[in-house]
Design a protein that fits this description.
Length: 305
């Protein structure tokens, strides 16, 4: 894949040149392409490919955060959402929305939209460790919390879905082919309904970090995807929950696409010893706030990680 980002011309002793600059992907990660064509000699061209490494991405992240900090010093209010054109997250540059949202009739969409399922949500669906004949490998844990609105009120009877990699960092998906083992006793998907106080609870296995193709030696911090549907399919929101102290946080352009540190911190669950069970599982607590200045970050549509 090669996406053209721009064109520039230069004239020198050997004639006029046109250079295209783009971003592509190889087996090892994202690359920067410079494709030069000598217009004086149309058959002559040169391609220079530079692999993007972590130092390149980290420098871009630091520059973007410095721009944000400077804007904050000038009085700009804090941002609790990601920068959708965050260049270090390479695919967002290629796919982020460039036009205003289009108004649609929710009732018309729901005539042809997917449904939540062919049956009610069963209580056992919130336990991702009992879906197969054997027990999955990895660190068993409980993740619990509340779904709240911007005023701190509970959001009751809310469908919450989760999906995640296994303990080795591998998804059961045809596009995930990196050399980590699949676990025949772990599918990595579950769902539940919040109670009258907005509480949810899942039992699962702590996911592993995994590589992705944003740049050379790029790794995603361990995380769990959360989906919330509201009371209509058109209200679906998707976000990610992380674990405290992950050393990959400073290196991850998806996590760092949220320029405000406080907003990033709200994506990290807290270890809760009261949720832990002796000789059985650890516990993490994570509340999801849907609106307001302390809202949980929501993924842009089409995010691939």
């Amino acid at each position: 894949m090669l996406a053209i980002r721009g064109r520039r011309r230069r004239r020198g002793a050997e004639g006029e040149h046109s250079t295209r600059v783009g971003v592509g992907r190889t087996a090892g990660g994202t690359t920067q392409w410079d494709w030069s064509v000598d217009r004086t000699h149309p058959g002559r061209q040169a391609v220079r490919v530079t692999e993007l490494n972590q130092a390149d991405i980290s420098a871009e992240i630091a520059a973007k955060h410095a721009e944000y900090d400077a804007a904050r010093e000038k009085g700009m209010p804090p941002l609790d959402s990601p920068l959708i054109d965050f260049a270090p997250y390479r695919s967002s540059v290629l796919r982020h929305p460039t036009k205003n949202p289009k108004l649609v009739d929710p009732e018309t969409i729901e005539l042809a939209s997917p449904t939540f399922g062919h049956r009610d949500v069963a209580a056992v669906e919130s336990d991702l460790t009992i879906q197969h004949a054997g027990e999955p490998l990895g660190e068993r844990m409980v993740v619990a919390g509340r779904v709240l609105d911007g005023e701190g009120r509970p959001v009751a009877h809310q469908l919450v879905e989760v999906w995640q990699a296994n303990s080795a960092g591998r998804y059961i998906h045809q596009r995930d082919q990196h050399p980590a083992p699949l676990d025949p006793n772990f599918t990595g998907a579950g769902r539940c309904i919040t109670d009258a106080q907005g509480n949810y609870r899942f039992t699962t296995i702590k996911p592993g970090a995994y590589p992705w193709k944003n740049h050379v030696n790029a790794w995603r911090p361990a995380h769990i995807h959360f989906s919330l549907f509201g009371n209509a399919f058109t209200q679906r929101l998707v976000t990610q929950m992380y674990f405290p102290g992950d050393p990959l946080f400073p290196l991850d352009p998806i996590y760092q696409s949220i320029p405000d540190r406080a907003a990033r911190d709200r994506l990290v669950a807290a270890y809760d010893h009261e949720l832990s069970s002796p000789e059985w599982s650890l516990g993490y607590r994570w509340d999801i706030v849907l609106t307001g200045p302390k809202a949980t970050w929501i993924e842009p549509e089409g995010s691939d990680a």
